[in-house]
């Protein structure tokens, strides 16, 4: 059984992030197709996923097309029960489903005022009364979920679930716009910012094409509040320690200096996503852990 997932700009598309996490966090292989927003390539890509008009859109090896992230989540949970997309406990599962459904349909003030932008963090955004209402609702339902499920993990219902995947872009908005939430909610936001899958998506988003002007906001900026990346930069000369790319196994073509050492990669995207956040990539970190 194979899957093909249609997605768009990593830095900006909150629903693409959700769709990707449904595979990445639950160890389900998937082929991805990307087309940039506001280009002719986007409707051309979606034509292969008809009748989808938005992303994510999923096509199965049987030729079935599934649109809407919540439908994709439920289909994956049905096809792969061993991957535990939903909590096994019935009470916890009901809570997780309620959370995911509310996120899918709600929080419009927050979503409209604070479009996701993983490339920037703002320092002087002032939320409206409507956005504040959304933030207080998030605090309430997140706290309710953790209390009801007695979660002893960073996540809402115990182990990471579909509900957490759905709230990952909300965490990015709260962090990116410097929104004030309770200490408990802040801990949940930070769990997403430190999560390896989230960091990998953001690292790719940082180097995934040019900035999209639609998402630019005229606020003062600050450093992204997530983990500080290891010092790294692209370089044009040097002798790499490795002869094959840590990701593809192909011969190295481009170089980066990371923690004072030279490493090779098979293409610019492999290199640049690593330079953006080396510690997000387990395959590269295994290479870095080797003695030079």
UniProtKB/TrEMBL annotation:
<dbReference type="InterPro" id="IPR036282">
    <property type="entry name" value="Glutathione-S-Trfase_C_sf"/>
</dbReference>
<dbReference type="GO" id="GO:0004364">
    <property type="term" value="F:glutathione transferase activity"/>
</dbReference>
<dbReference type="InterPro" id="IPR036249">
    <property type="entry name" value="Thioredoxin-like_sf"/>
</dbReference>
<dbReference type="GO" id="GO:0006559">
    <property type="term" value="P:L-phenylalanine catabolic process"/>
</dbReference>
<feature type="domain" description="GST N-terminal">
    <location>
        <begin position="3"/>
        <end position="84"/>
    </location>
</feature>
<protein>
    <submittedName>
        <fullName>Glutathione S-transferase</fullName>
    </submittedName>
</protein>
<dbReference type="GO" id="GO:0006749">
    <property type="term" value="P:glutathione metabolic process"/>
</dbReference>
<dbReference type="InterPro" id="IPR004045">
    <property type="entry name" value="Glutathione_S-Trfase_N"/>
</dbReference>
<dbReference type="GO" id="GO:0016034">
    <property type="term" value="F:maleylacetoacetate isomerase activity"/>
</dbReference>
<dbReference type="Pfam" id="PF13409">
    <property type="entry name" value="GST_N_2"/>
</dbReference>
């Amino acid at each position: 059984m194979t899957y093909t997932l249609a997605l768009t700009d990593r830095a900006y598309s909150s629903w693409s992030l959700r769709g990707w996490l449904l595979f990445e966090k639950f160890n389900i292989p998937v082929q991805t197709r990307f087309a940039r927003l506001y280009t002719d390539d986007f409707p051309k890509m979606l034509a292969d996923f008809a009748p989808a008009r938005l992303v994510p859109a999923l096509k199965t090896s049987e030729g079935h097309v599934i649109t809407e992230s919540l439908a994709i989540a439920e289909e994956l949970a049905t096809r792969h029960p061993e991957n535990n997309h939903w909590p096994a406990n019935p009470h916890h599962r009901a809570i997780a489903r309620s959370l995911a459904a509310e996120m899918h349909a709600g929080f419009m003030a927050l979503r409209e005022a604070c479009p996701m932008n993983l490339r920037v963090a703002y320092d002087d955004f002032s939320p409206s009364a409507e956005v504040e209402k959304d933030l207080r609702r998030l605090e309430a339902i997140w706290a309710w979920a953790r209390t009801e499920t007695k979660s002893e993990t960073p996540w809402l219902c115990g182990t990471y679930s579909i509900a957490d995947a759905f709230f990952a872009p909300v965490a990015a908005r709260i962090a990116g716009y410097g929104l004030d939430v309770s200490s408990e909610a802040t801990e949940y936001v930070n769990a997403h910012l430190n999560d390896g899958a989230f960091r990998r998506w953001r690292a790719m988003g940082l180097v995934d094409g040019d900035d999209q002007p639609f998402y630019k906001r005229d606020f003062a900026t600050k450093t992204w509040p997530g983990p500080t990346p290891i010092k790294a930069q692209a370089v044009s000369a040097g002798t790499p320690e490795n002869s094959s790319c840590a990701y593809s196994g192909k011969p190295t073509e481009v170089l980066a200096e990371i923690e004072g050492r030279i490493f090779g990669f098979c293409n610019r995207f492999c290199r640049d996503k690593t330079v953006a956040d080396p510690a997000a990539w387990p395959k590269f970190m295994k290479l870095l852990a080797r003695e030079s």
